[in-house]
């Protein structure tokens, strides 16, 4: 295959899963990162080539220049696949230039950024009849009064720009229980120069979180999809999937497919919903615009999203449609962070040990481990071991 696949971000298991999904199909994969340190995804046997580039935030111009320089030397335009929100932000910023040299699903500059911006996303959802949690902006009149009356405590302080917030605070949001904590959270965000808003917490345990994972062709039609249910996440209650199972929920397709098609989405997207434990209503929480943490689960279900993307962009024709319309019990498992999550669920008495043990009796789609490709898991274990050793030495 003359078109290479350039995978941005290999220090996390999303990049690893994309490399595997494409490499197993015979695609020449290029693992791109700003450092070889901790880029365990690039240790996969399915990595054909490695490329070290300038840091996407520290010098985005140089980062893009390196990507363009690489593509100019190729006989056919590579397919560009960002595996982290921060990479996707830069791709969107330079989309017209990059599309001259790379095959990218989206052709409208700004749609990635707008969809990742939580406040703009909620506006788009409301415009298209999709329910979102109530929010209050900090510059609104009678801000505190509206928080007390409409949002109520506990509530969450959420960023409009998630990648920058996570980079600064190593968390997705602040949960606050009273006025003092709210003031502290707003001060923290203000000092960091980050825009935030206050959002109501939709009632329900973590297993009330669901996903609609879909691929939309170049005509913005949903062609491939599945729905999943989270069981555990880390950090608990407001974190990323660490134990999530496929579950067929037609209503999520009705809501999610309609929304993505209306906003003219192209390529892969994952919508996260939360089901209100009191009313049963589904609320849109966020949209993951890059490949998902659950990519290996989707692959096990027969939805190889990176390969579907590659085929349509290189061949110019959509791949035959497929939807998962039955319960398979397949479950994504990121064992390391799930152990940390279980520790906290047990500590906070949100789960019992028996509940955890019973949940494990499902066929697994592992985040990192693959007996046919063990080196990334060994590299990841080494990274974790060194981290724990440093903590012990510092005590």
In words, what does this structure look like?
This protein is of the alpha/beta class and 395 residues long. It has 3 domains: 100 residues, 3-Layer(aba) Sandwich (Rossmann fold); 67 residues; 157 residues, ATP-grasp fold, B domain (D-amino Acid Aminotransferase, Chain A, domain 1). The protein has 15 helices and 16 strands. The strands form 3 sheets. Strands 9, 10, 11, 12, 13, 14, 15 and 16 form an 8-stranded mixed β-sheet that branches. It is globular. The termini are far apart. The model has no long low-confidence stretch (mean pLDDT 96).
Question: Could you write a compact summary of the structure shown?
Answer:
It is built from 15 helices and 16 strands. By secondary structure, it is an alpha/beta fold. It has three domains: 5-104, Rossmann fold (3-Layer(aba) Sandwich), CATH 3.40.50; 134-200; 206-362, D-amino Acid Aminotransferase, Chain A, domain 1, CATH 3.30.470.20.
Helix-strand makeup class: alpha/beta
Distance between the termini: 52 Å
Regions with pLDDT < 50 over 5+ consecutive residues? none
Mean pLDDT: 96
Instruction: Please count the beta strands (DSSP E, at least 2 residues each).
Output: 16
CATH H level of the largest domain: which superfamily? ATP-grasp fold, B domain
Gyration radius (Cα, Å) is 21 Å
Overall helicity: 25-40%
Strand content: 15-25%
* Number of separate structural domains: 3
Given the structure, what is the number of helices? 15
CATH topology of the largest domain: D-amino Acid Aminotransferase, Chain A, domain 1
Shape: globular
At the first level of CATH, the class of the largest domain is Alpha Beta
**Which sheet architecture does the biggest sheet show?**
8 strands, mixed
Please state the second-level CATH architecture of the largest domain.
2-Layer Sandwich
